[in-house]
Structures are given as structure tokens and as C-alpha cells.
Amino acid sequence: MSLFLSSYENRLDTKGRISVPASFRASVANERFAGVVLYRSFTNNCIEGLSMSRMEQLAAATDKMGVFDSELDDLSAMLFADARPLSFDVTGRIVIPADLLKHAGIKDTAVFVGRGNSFQIWNPEAFKKAQEKSLNNLRSVRPNLILS
Amino acid sequence: MSLFLSSYENRLDTKGRISVPASFRASVANERFAGVVLYRSFTNNCIEGLSMSRMEQLAAATDKMGVFDSELDDLSAMLFADARPLSFDVTGRIVIPADLLKHAGIKDTAVFVGRGNSFQIWNPEAFKKAQEKSLNNLRSVRPNLILS
DNA sequence: TTATAAACCATAAAATACCATAAAATAATT
DNA sequence: AATTATTTTATGGTATTTTATGGTTTATAA
Questions:
Q1: Is the CB of A95 under 7 A from strand C?
Q2: Using CB atoms, which residue from B43, B116, B141 is nearest to A76?
Q3: DSSP type of residue A102
Q4: CB of B78 within 8 Å of any CB in chain A?
Q5: CA torsion through residues A72, A78, A81, A85, sign
Q6: pLDDT tens-digit profile, chain A (148 residues)
Q7: Is the CB of B148 under 7 A from strand C?
């Protein structure tokens, strides 16, 4: 799976269908599941997106915790219960469920935002504001990203 | 076996029949046993659900515990003795045994909740409350799920 | 028999597949 | 480099299939 990069603004039609950017589709090409998994972000008013293989990685990670672990309970409750597997139609569109759209405040236009191993879907104006905020945060607190 | 994801609210008819969500049925498709295994949750007022192959995985895992382990005794008592294999009818429905319904407080509507490698069946209101609680727990204690 | 469970049939709503096209991006040619 | 041709992408509409759910009939067991 190659990285999700760049941002793309696309339109929703009357049935809630929206084209997943071609480059994002290319990122999950050659996977068993031809589509993406979406869930409501815990921290932002946006939608989180992953490939199915990434989701399976998460499930495998929970297996390493005990089967009857209580912390696991809360995490899997939110993550798996809320996750929506959405397959592409022939032209590369998905139908974003209404409750996800509501959570992100998306009406007729949405921005697909690359996040490396995952991506997000935002209301365009909300995204713009969040980006400015992130930029300001970075200016005040230099992050340290260790490469190796 | 693919993952159990998302949540689906379905209705029980007068005979106690309820449709297992199509995507959950797809998760156990191509397995020897065309159905699911249900048992009473140890920790919540809900029903736990698995594929038969997953049940066999659990059996294999208990083998790793000592044969005369007392914990294993209790676990097998609940897990294996209480487990109900239920096969789908032609339209993908199962009849949930009355004692399981009672344990989960389910009357005429139930929610199938994806849990990755397993799923749960809840009373709708009870599920809603449990979800809110999980979200609060997650917000106070950021879980760390390490992928590799 | 009588009750219980399993198989069978029917249908509205929802989800998905299909078809068509304009705009945009890429490649080819002059 | 500029123009033309070709492909890809995004987007709209329609048709078909799947799904959930109700009812009825047939088999099974107490």
C-alpha cells in the first residue's frame, strides 16, 4: 500500500456518492478489498479513512492483547463498531453514510486529505481552519520527528 | 475470515427470527459451518458472536493453558458449554435462544456490533449507553495500540 | 395430536451495478 | 513549443440486484 498524499476537493451527488481521488484509489489497488474503511474521528469533526489491510493490521494487534482485556473492549468497541467498509463502484465512487457526513459537517463538497498511511475527509471550510491552526501550532512548538 | 465491522440494527419477528447482517454473513462465507456461534458475554449484558473457525482458534489457545488449570475450567465451562452454534436459514436469519435474549435484554430489536474478529448483539439502548461510556474512557486514557 | 421447528414463498426498500458524458489530464504529433 | 489526439477522471442518471422482513406451508418431535 503506497501513501495517501495531497488533498482533493470533490463533490457529493444527490445520493451521497463521491469520487475517491484516483491517487487514493491507486494506493489501495492490488488489495483484496477494493475500497476503503471509514469511521468517525475520535478527536476531530472529520472522517478517518484506512485501507482494509490496515484495519486487519489493527485487528491482529488487538489479538496480541488478551482476548478478554478490558482496555481492548473500549478500543474495539469504538473502532470496529463504527468502521464502515465501503467498496468502490466501477467509476471509483463510494457512498458515505449519512451519520458520518453529519459528524464531519459535510454537505455537498468534501476534501480528501492525505495522512500518509491513512487519510481524512473534511468539510472544506473546517479543513482550512484546522490547517491554519496546525500551522500555528507547528510554529510555536517545533516537533521532533526521529527517523531511525 | 474477514473482519466483522460496523453496526446494524435489525428486528426480531414473532418467531424470534432475525437477519444476520449481510456483511457479517459474508465474513463467515466459505467456512465449513454456515452460521455463527453465540454465547453470553462474561463482562457485558450482551451476546458474543464468533465464526466456528474462530471458536476453534480459541480452543487451540486454551490448550496452551495447563490442562488442569482451574481458570481454564471456568473458562471452558462458560465458553464451550454455553456456546450455541446457529446456522443461517436460506435468507440469512438465525433464531437466538431465549436465554441469550434475556441475558442481553433484547425484546424486538437488536444491534449487531462488529468487533473485528468477533461481534456482539445488544439491546439498542444498552448499546448506545455502552458506546458513550467507551468513548469517554478512550478520551481520558488514550489507548496505545502498537502496530509493529 | 399438538406444539415446535424448519423449509418455502413473497415483497418493499435499500443498496449496488450499469450506462452515458463532460471536463481534465496526459500523451503524441507537428 | 504549440496543437491535436487520446486517455483518465469526475459526475450525472437509470436499471438491476440484494437485503431485510413478513407470512404460509411442510416436516419433526414430544
A1: yes
A2: B116
A3: H
A4: no
A5: negative
A6: 689 999 999 999 988 899 999 999 999 998 999 999 999 998 899 999 999 999 999 888 888 776 566 677 788 888 999 999 999 999 999 999 999 999 999 999 999 999 999 999 999 999 999 999 888 888 887 767 777 7
A7: no
* pLDDT band for position B138 (cuts 50, 70, 90): confident
Q: Is B109 left (phi over 0), alpha (psi -120 to 50) or beta?
A: beta
Identify the CA nearest to B101 among candidates B86, B90, B114.
B86
Question: Strand B35-40's sheet: what is its strand order?
Answer: B7-11, B109-114, B119-122, B47-50, B35-40, B84-87
Q: Per the domain annotation, does B2 fall within a domain?
A: no
Which CATH number is A40's domain given?
Answer: 3.40.1550.20
Query: Can you give the residue range of the structural domain that contains B133?
Result: 7-140
Which amino acid does the sequence have at A40? R
D26 C1' to B95 CA distance, Å = 19
B146 occurs within a structural domain: no
Closest residue in chain A to residue B24, using alpha carbons only: A85
For B137, counting Cβ atoms within 10 Å of its Cβ (0-12 exposed, 13-18 middle, 19+ buried), the class is: middle
- The total of structural domains in chain A comes to 1
